[in-house]
Design goal:
Radius of gyration: 19 Å
Number of strands: 14
Structural class: alpha/beta
Distance between the termini: 42 Å
Helix content: 25-40%
Order of helices and strands: EHEEHEHEHEEHEEEHEEHEEH
Largest sheet: 7 strands, parallel
Oligomer: single chain
Length: about 280
């Protein structure tokens, strides 16, 4: 029986990270980087190191195949800029520089669709993510895969995020105020996102030693108003939807050239996503 390969991962305790970790553990040994004292992935961890360690030394000790960087800091709850940059640039930058000097085969980065447009409420988050993207988007003789996630939807996500919060308000028949109802976004189910990561890792040998920029998206956009209206209908809510700024519109759409070809495509349509998060 062949030995399991080792993958290093950040963000394993987050919403997306947990799901990816639970599937990876079936085939790989996982080296977890975390800042959390308690981590419910403890039972499956091959070895756990705290973020901020000497990464070059750690990477030299273990025969690691790849690194999957998922950890992020959105900057919610009035967090300081330095903490947002620490999570989204400083720490991943140290890991990435150690990766470049190592024999590790590939680095997968988790990016965001929010970098496509300016948003003053997410300024530090967007700028820190852009800064790291510019860092890795250079001519390194390594496999570097950037995954730009569009609007991920799934059950049991962080209750402070827009969609879980909206569903909660709809269930309570509370008034919903949409600041930018005409904004259009590409919505993608979390299970499809997880499958994209797994398929890329399982087919990593098809990629050359260069930078790849992929969009994890369906290629279709829907307005925020349509999203909330669809959720309301499925939940049979009596909430009133109030729309502001109806003449302002941003479209967050993926470039078709950046969609993953051959090894992955989303299974769930917009209507199926709505059904999955409301039933």
């Amino acid at each position: 029986m062949s030995k399991k390969k080792i993958i290093a991962i950040t963000g394993s305790s987050g919403y997306l990270g947990k799901k990816i970790t639970n599937l990876l553990k079936k085939k790989y040994k996982l080296l977890i980087f975390t800042t959390k004292k308690k981590n419910d992935t403890k039972s499956i961890v091959y070895k756990k190191y705290c973020l901020g360690e000497n990464y070059e030394y750690i990477f030299s000790l273990k025969n690691i195949e790849g690194i999957v960087h998922i950890a992020t800091n959105y900057g919610r709850k009035n967090q300081k800029s330095k903490n947002i940059y620490l999570a989204n640039y400083d720490i991943p930058n140290k890991i990435f520089e150690a990766f470049i000097k190592s024999d590790i085969q590939y680095f997968i980065n988790t990016d965001t669709f929010y970098t496509l447009k300016n948003n003053k409420n997410l300024k530090d988050y967007i700028l820190s993510k852009k800064k790291f993207f510019l860092k890795i988007n250079k001519r390194y003789e390594k496999k570097i895969i950037n995954l730009k996630l569009f609007h991920v939807i799934g059950k049991n996500d962080n209750k402070d995020k827009f969609i879980p919060k909206t569903i909660s308000m709809l269930n309570k028949n509370k008034k919903i105020v949409l600041k930018f109802p005409k904004n259009e976004v590409d919505f993608i189910h979390v299970d499809d996102v997880v499958e994209a990561y797994i398929n890329i890792i399982n087919h990593i040998d098809i990629y050359k030693n260069k930078f790849y920029n992929f969009s994890i998206a369906s290629g279709k956009t829907y307005s925020i108003f349509k999203l909330v209206k669809s959720l309301k209908k499925n939940l049979k809510s009596r909430s009133k939807i109030i729309c502001l700024n109806q003449f302002k519109k941003k479209i967050f759409k993926s470039n078709k050239k950046n969609l993953i070809k051959n090894i992955w495509k989303p299974k769930y349509s917009f209507n199926q996503i709505i059904n999955k998060v409301t039933y």
